[in-house]
Amino acid sequence: HHYIGATWHVLKIELYEMGWNLKDGLRECLVAAAPYGGPISLLKGHNRRSPSARPQLEIYSSSGLPLASFPWKSGVVKQLGWTVSDDLLCVQEDGTVLVYDLLGGFKRHFSMGNEVSQSQVLETKIFHSPYGTGVAILTGALRFTLATNIDDIKLRRLPEVPGLQGAPSCWAVLTQDRQSKVLVANGSHLFILDNTACTPVTPPGLSPQASSIVHMCVSFSYKYLALLTDSGHVWMGTSNLKEKLSEVDTKIKTPPKQMAWCRRPKSQQPSAVVMWDGLLIVVGECKETIQYHLDDDSILVPELDGVRIISGTHHELLQEVPGACEEIFKIASMAPGALLLEAHKEYEKESQKADEYLREIKEQSLLSEAVRQCVEAAGHEHEPETQKTLLRAASFGKCFLSNFPPEQFVSMCRDLRVLNAVRDYTVGIPLTHTQFKQMTVQVLIDRLVYRKLYPLAIEICRYLKTPEYQGVSRVLKHWACYKVQQKEESDEVIAKAVSVKLADAAGIFYSEIATKAYESGRTELAIKLLEFEPRSGEQVPLLLKMKKSPLALSKAIESGDTDLVYTVVMYLKNELNRGDFFMMLRNQPVALSLYKQFCKHQEQDTLKDLFNQDDDHEELGNLYVKASYKEQRLEARIALLQSAVDEYYKAKNEFSAKTTEDEMRLLRFQRKLEEEKGELLVGFSLHDTMTTLLSVGLHKHAEQLYKDFRVPDKRFWWLKLKSLAEKEDWEELEKFGKSKKSPIGYLPFVEVCIKHHNKYEAKKYVSKVTPEQKVKAHLAVGDMEGAAEAAIERRNESEISTVLSRCSATTDHLLMERLNRAKATAVKK
Amino acid sequence: ICFALLCHRTKLILILECQATKTCRKYVDLATNTDNANVKVLIDPKQFSRNEANGIIIIDKLQPRDFHILFVPRRSLLCEQRLKEKGVLNSFTNIDEYILDLIPYDGDLLSMESESSFRECYLENDQTSLYHAAKGLMTLQALYGTIPQIFGKGECARHVANMMLRMKREFAGSQTQILPVFDTLLLLDRNVDLLTPLATQLTYEGLIDEIFGITNGYVKLPPEKFAQKKQGEGGKELPTEPKKLQLNSAEELYAEIRDKNFNAVGAALSKKAKIISAAFEERHNAKTVGEIKQFVSQLPHMQAARSSLANHTSIAELIKDITTSEDFFDSLTVEQEFMTGVDTDKVSTYIEDCIAQKDPLIKILRLVCMQSVCNNGLKQKVLDYYKKEILQTYGYKHILTLKNLERVGLLKPQSTMRNNYPTIRKTLKLWMEDANEQNPNDISYVYSGYAPLSVRLTQVLARPGWRSIEEVLKMLPGPHFEERQQVPTGLHKKRQPGENRTILVFFLGGVTYAEIAALRFLSNMEDSGTEYIIAATKLINGTSWIKSLMDSPEENLP
């Protein structure tokens, strides 16, 4: 360990000796290194324009192992940068941004807009926010254009900076209030640019000696800001410029090459790193600075919890010393963790001092604290040996504790095994434990997958027991997507390999793999792979894309998702000629009936064709009937009904045919009568027509309908009875009642008369009522005596009770006695 | 077109559906009256494709500022395509879906509120609603665990079960580890039991629905009976707006009486009245400050109970006016004759008379269908006679409706097969001679004698099992089946002695309030050992059901 500084501790450790072999180091190179121990890209000779000596783009892992290398054939690159998903962005002078994956494969390109391409790119910064990776550009016209998320590009042109003559002395992008803003320094003036305004700001307590801000940097979390002035002072404060944390004089007045924050999350100390040629200065809260000599051209890579320094030969990490490590490793430390480590050392030596140390910790009841310290410190250590020493000490301490929760220890052991594996030189992802926790296993797995390190990724998933769905299956899917693009192997071999490897994995989406295969021009392979897809719904879009429509249709039907069936049907409708389309539907009844539903609402004519094709005369008939009601003109309506009749006969549906003929007959009759008598009739039902005719006294015509349409006697009698009563044509009613024996009996006569409040007429029919209905009839006209008489005569208990219930105790006293007596005998019987 | 606006009210989500013009106007009002114009419009894709033209034009005219579409229950390609054709798709800031498969209506009741589900499945061969049902059941399983046992009867049930099993396969590996809440799922096709919805429901809630119609948990009642009766304020004008009441188990009294036979409601109400007035009398006994304080603290609850009692007394009076009428009695008598198999094979004089007097068409259709179902089809002569009578009386345009009823099996000519309804009735004890309406001991109380077939099937499944009625099951349409779903190890439910089994009964094609009452009765039976949760594509009654099957073209003649 190299611990430096007296009052505050910064630690610089070597991560890798670089595996690359760079002749000129990093000189004359555009360099970009991705945070979280990501890949490094180099563009050598990026200003060269002659075709004979093209610049070379190279991509390396953090340990300097080559991942890709190719000559740069596009335009002049102003800036390289990495996205959050390990894609390389190359921003060209004309504002075009080219996107490559980390193995050098070209993915896509996009433009930063006309304005940028016209006035050219002056400077570029690539930044990360919760919304993704963004690109900010300062154009030749001294205006800023910004895209917050390159996956969903919405270009924003920021307002003008007042008084800006040439390029600003420095600028930075920050994310505040869910918005990306640009902080610009023009001489000693500082401005914040957001979507709508350019606001001048003043950092509180900035040293008055400064006449210009020459450099600035924002912390990883966008919370803190550091400014370097031409007087050599570093001002550190919050990025909202509300609070100053510290100001330190570096005593160097030349502009630096780079500046970065070097601060742990939750640290009390502000600290930043400033780099000049050959010199690195760490500034913090106190006046004192820490200085390092640099042998070689280097770049600084800001991280969540420190700064990485990459030179032509080495890769180092500069960090504030973590609290736990400091407590334990400080010389002559009496912290519980330090004592526990000491105790364990003595124990290994089989010395009794172990007991003394232990007792000292236990007396202060700090043993659990000691264990925690050791575990935490282990997490911050990069050397496996040191990690092991600390964890062994922790494990030793744990033995003397009852009920100490094991989770922290167990998960730290697991995490460290994973971290050591990915930090390995051959993998080259130098993550710290803090970074790992922030980035999550999910993302780490993704990064391994991008590097095609499938076996390691799967091993980590299994080791960490990540649910298959998010872990192993996902890796295997990526593997398969890669596999299907390998041109040298045959379809059969690949399909077999994929199915064998993926057989037991849960939640594999074969459709995605098949899509990849199709995109690489391997349709046959794609079809083979789709066979393995359990979700038929997912098969459909690709099958359509590959023009396998019959298969797509049956898969859509299989899924049960009718919307999906419609998708295919509509697609087929546009793709195929009508005959083929109908033919295909004919073989798929589910699709056919859905399409019929669609036609019913949208395309009536098509519906007719469909029914014709199937010789479905019944449905054709129905269709004509429906259409007939939409017709305004009677002739047209009758013509349509005639077509319906023809169809119904073809369908051998005599009833429907006859009924429809009746309908036509009625319409004609109504029309004729309308013309002759001026009575509105068309559209009435037969029943209503007769009622109307009777009510206006056209009895003969009503009779004619009654005969022509063979209306049952009963209904006609009811109808006539009600119509006559309605008209209060009692004379006619009486005549009608006597015309022949009523098929509905005479109780209705009684009831209808009563309904029209004519008791006198009602009584005329009581005597004609059948014996069963006599009681009811008498009651209807309010003749209690008659009712009682009839009931007693019939010796019907329930009828007697009914009459009784209607009697009033005051007026019908005698009657009630008689009824009760009769009831008693009726019951006896 | 149906723009449904969603409101959340305590436990219920209500969907207010309106007629095309009315809602469009509402939509416009909302859009113009709301200043921030951030109105969410929920479009039911199904309704949308039905007659989208109106809706589109309205949207077009609106010049939307910040509009969102949420498709309910799912995004629909057809609907989007139509919006695109009309060039308004891009006018929407957001196009999304609000996945609303199963809407909780009460503590034990879920409905998809899919109006035309039965019509689509059995008439139009469009199984979209079944797909949504399967999706809804998957969501339910994601929340409450895999249901280990699935039983079903009917074609649609089979289809839903198949989709569920397929979906489960498709999402293998992603299922959540939840202890199953439901032991069994029973899927029942409505067409297995066509009879029950045709019969007049005789429970309190059932009658409210039959007479006034319950829509989305609300009922609109004639206002006369609800006039504020305050002393000394005579001559006050009667309210003219219908009285709107919310009906669910949150109301203590309603929960108590909703599932009773109507004949037992009067007694329950007067008992309640006594309790409430006794509670109010308590104030005279309250002597100490503490007692008075306690009395006062209970006042709001008591006042709510009193107004609830007043409301239900008024409703009961309204219903009683109808149930004591001769018409109601005659019609019920005929229904019960059909259900007991009396004279089902010849033309019914009662129906004839009703037609002759041009009673409401739906009443006629319900009765004729019931006769046909109870006779396993009518003699061709009888059927043709009814059809001719209906067409002559109500108009030839109803020929399409009659054809629809025939297609779904509600009306049919008798086949050569013998009438198996009596066998079904006897085996399943569908008719109980001495149904006890006051203190029921059997589900038949909900129809005063008729035990709903669907609920009998459910009851037999719970005990002793369907194997005992194989013969009858074969007589009913569609396959019956049993499926088992693998429950992850460690999640097998270990039932404590005395702990109830939970069965989810899903009615594909709709369920009536009386059936719900019957199932609740079974849940509450002392020795049942089974608790029932009910789900349905829609809450229906005979009238709304028949209406959904009607096809009566609007006449266009001048």
Automatic annotation (TrEMBL), chain A:
Entry similarity comment: Belongs to the VPS16 family.
Localization per record: Late endosome membrane; Lysosome membrane
A Pfam family the protein falls into: Vps16_N
Gene Ontology annotations of biological process type: endosomal transport; intracellular protein transport; vacuole fusion, non-autophagic
Membrane topology note: Peripheral membrane protein
Name listed for the protein in its UniProt record: Vacuolar protein sorting-associated protein 16 homolog
Key words of the record: Endosome, Lysosome, Membrane, Protein transport, Transport
Any one GO MF annotation of this record: actin binding
Domain Vps16 N-terminal as annotated: residue spans: 12-410
Function: Plays a role in vesicle-mediated protein trafficking to lysosomal compartments including the endocytic membrane transport and autophagic pathways. Believed to act as a core component of the putative HOPS and CORVET endosomal tethering complexes.
GO cellular component, one term: HOPS complex
Gene3D superfamilies registered for this protein in UniProt: Vps16, C-terminal region
Domain (Vps16 C-terminal): residue spans on this chain: 509-823
Subunit structure: Core component of at least two putative endosomal tethering complexes, the homotypic fusion and vacuole protein sorting (HOPS) complex and the class C core vacuole/endosome tethering (CORVET) complex. Their common core is composed of the class C Vps proteins VPS11, VPS16, VPS18 and VPS33A, which in HOPS further associates with VPS39 and VPS41 and in CORVET with VPS8 and TGFBRAP1. Interacts with RAB5C. Interacts with STX17, MON1B. Associates with adapter protein complex 3 (AP-3) and clathrin:AP-3 complexes.
TrEMBL record, chain B:
Top-rank lineage group of the source organism: Eukaryota
Keyword vocabulary terms for this entry: Cytoplasmic vesicle, Endosome, Lysosome, Membrane, Protein transport, Signal, Transport
Compartment list: Cytoplasmic vesicle, Autophagosome; Cytoplasmic vesicle, Clathrin-coated vesicle; Early endosome; Late endosome membrane
A single GO cellular-component term on record: late endosome membrane
Protein family per UniProt: Belongs to the STXBP/unc-18/SEC1 family.
Signal peptide, first to last residue: 1-20
Listed name of the protein: Vacuolar protein sorting-associated protein 33A
